[in-house]
Amino acid sequence: MNPFDHQTPVPGIQHIIAVGSGKGGVGKSTVAANLSVALRSLGKQVGLLDTDIYGPSVPRLFGVLGTKPAVNEKGQLVPIVRYGVKLMSMGFLIEEDSAVIWRGPMLFKAMDQFFKDVDWGHLDYLIVDLPPGTGDVALTLAQKVPLHGGIVICTPQNLALMDAKKAIDMFEKIKIPLLGVVENMAFMKIPPSGLSQNEQTDKIQLFPKGELDSFLDSRKISKLAQIPFHPHVALTSEAGIPIVESQPQSDEGQIFKKIAEDLVKKMGAS
Ligand SMILES: Nc1ncnc2c1ncn2[C@@H]1O[C@H](COP(=O)(O)OP(=O)(O)OP(=O)(O)O)[C@@H](O)[C@H]1O
Ligand SMILES: [Mg+2]
Questions:
Q1: Which CATH number do you get for residue 213?
Q2: 184: Cβ below 6 Å to ligand 1?
Q3: Is the per-residue pLDDT at 255 higher than 80?
């Protein structure tokens, strides 16, 4: 029997897109958060599910740390709505600094509940922020949920590419179409635009450029975007207002918007 036979569509949710990477700290949550807000700004109904049970970051990225979701009359958790995006995260259910040890069956159940026991309502897009790596959570999720596509985040250096390849292979193995790769922190403009009157900028390579481009070419995988490193991306995340919300006209805000527009084109008009 095909292990994925039991996948059934989640009623009311049109497209479920996972954002993953092999390596930690490359910007998955940043991209997932900004992509969600950008899709919302295009008039879509959007949910963001943070499946990072060890280090959930969605509550902080959206400035709703410490908020507890309500329970509806059917006993389902009601997502927290911020900037028009419906949010659910393990971070709303456990204390930020508590260490939960997850065992396989518990994990399976938690993932299941994130879909069945959350009152998502109608969504055009549910963006799923995966934890780093290609381990249990990612695999459990892919087995439980009919994902429509995966996006892999990678930084330029070969050390990150090595791990990104594992994430790409994981999506392939579990038969989830890879929508493409986002190269984050691709370079930094000096001085960063918006921080100086002088718009004459140089680009510096924060991470050495590796073989990402030739790898993507050889596998015919598209690069969805190149996002520069810019302090205001990190600052707005710290402040709990993703850059697409706080500075939509910035270069980075526009790049996230373009990723959202391309995604909508690719997934159809819905
Ligand atoms: N383009 C960028 N410019 C500046 N800072 C960035 C950029 N992308 C991400 N960051 C910062 O890098 C750090 C890591 O980003 P983020 O938390 O999104 O990574 P992650 O891949 O989700 O990490 P984890 O593997 O822990 O889940 C954060 O402080 C974030 O604000
Ligand atoms: Mg993260």
A1: 3.40.50.300
A2: yes
A3: yes
